[in-house]
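Lecture notes, continued. The same structure-token format from the folding unit now serves as the input rather than the output. Read the line below as a description of shape only.
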């Protein structure tokens, strides 16, 4: 009896030691990855004489819009897209900083929340701020996302993780904690627009109507490897957000269409594709957001998934995936890129 008890105790001790060592190794591995992460990735030079530097031409064609994994992606339907130009990377902190410096613009996350629009919110959630992902050590109950998403007063594009964080040395990272209003303001300043959902998806598919939808987690993208939201092995080299352009571009030369930061589109969110723009030409003309501040708050479609997309939780690392985003809520996994309707090369 005593020997059996002793063997059991020894076995238990060994199991605890092994589990402890595994946790220690995982924490150390994550810490090392943080220390080793790259702050900039070199982009290949563009052809000389491009009329729109930093953008690539997306030829027109007919897209099978949507996919079959989640209900909001359905039904798949044909939509024609005219040719347009698209930023080859997500807008970076440096690029957004130039806009802010030139215009004095203050983002939505830097303003107090309008109490008349959100009378239900407690006072601390009306302070300027953004929703930040904070990886929990465990998940309890039904796995409510409030266990890993927190409203952090003081979080904004300059302070992506909260007031104690900064973007110093991270000028090449995708700007995040921006809303559709912020993205529209940047695009107007640049003389560009925010792409429609169809434009964005057509570009993400490489403007190839023959390409079958890919459902596997991509290797050439900043996503989440491991059990979301507690274990992030970061096999792709990045625990969190990455500088733009660290992974292979798609066939058009567009970087990070999938993964890294979710990207805003100018389309108001609908529960599926049925109510989207009529089949036919997708005109990138009038914006879905009224200019000059008269914005009607709702939700817009975001595309591409982010560094938080994992097979066990959110398989939205696909061109056809989509999600709704509240118009006046800045989030630490959301950025954008701009489009331009102009003659092709
Ligand atoms: Ca990653």
């Amino acid at each position: 009896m005593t020997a059996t008890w002793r063997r059991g105790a020894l076995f238990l001790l060994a199991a605890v030691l092994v589990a402890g060592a595994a946790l220690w190794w995982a924490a150390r591995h994550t810490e090392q990855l943080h220390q080793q992460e790259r702050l900039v990735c070199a982009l290949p030079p563009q052809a000389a004489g491009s009329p729109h530097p930093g953008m690539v031409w997306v030829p027109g064609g007919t897209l099978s819009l949507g996919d079959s994994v989640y209900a909001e992606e359905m039904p798949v339907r044909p939509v024609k897209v005219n040719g347009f130009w698209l930023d080859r990377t997500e807008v970076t902190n440096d690029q957004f900083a130039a806009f802010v410096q030139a215009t004095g613009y203050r983002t939505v996350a830097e303003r107090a929340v309008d109490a008349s629009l959100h009378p239900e919110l407690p006072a601390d959630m009306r302070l300027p701020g953004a929703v930040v992902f904070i990886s929990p050590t465990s998940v309890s109950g039904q796995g409510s996302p409030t266990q890993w998403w927190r409203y952090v007063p003081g979080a904004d594009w300059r302070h992506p993780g909260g007031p104690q964080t900064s973007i110093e040395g991270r000028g090449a990272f995708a700007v995040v904690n921006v809303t559709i209003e912020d993205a529209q303001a940047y695009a107007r300043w640049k003389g560009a627009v925010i792409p429609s959902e169809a434009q964005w998806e057509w570009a993400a598919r490489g403007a190839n109507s023959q390409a079958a939808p890919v459902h596997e987690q991509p290797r050439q993208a900043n996503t989440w490897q491991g059990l979301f939201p507690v274990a992030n092995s970061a096999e792709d080299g990045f625990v969190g957000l990455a500088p733009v352009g660290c992974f292979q571009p798609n066939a058009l030369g567009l970087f990070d269409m999938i993964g890294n930061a979710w990207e805003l589109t100018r389309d108001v969110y609908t529960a599926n594709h049925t109510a989207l723009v009529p089949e036919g030409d997708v005109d990138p003309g009038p914006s879905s957001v009224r200019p000059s501040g008269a914005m009607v708050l709702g939700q817009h479609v975001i595309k591409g998934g982010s560094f938080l997309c994992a097979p066990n939780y959110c398989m939205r690392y696909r061109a056809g995936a989509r999600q709704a985003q509240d118009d006046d809520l800045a989030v630490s996994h959301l950025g954008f890129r701009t489009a331009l309707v102009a003659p092709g090369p």
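Point for the exam: Residues 37-340 form a domain with the paralog of FGE (formylglycine-generating enzyme) fold (CATH 3.90.1580.10).
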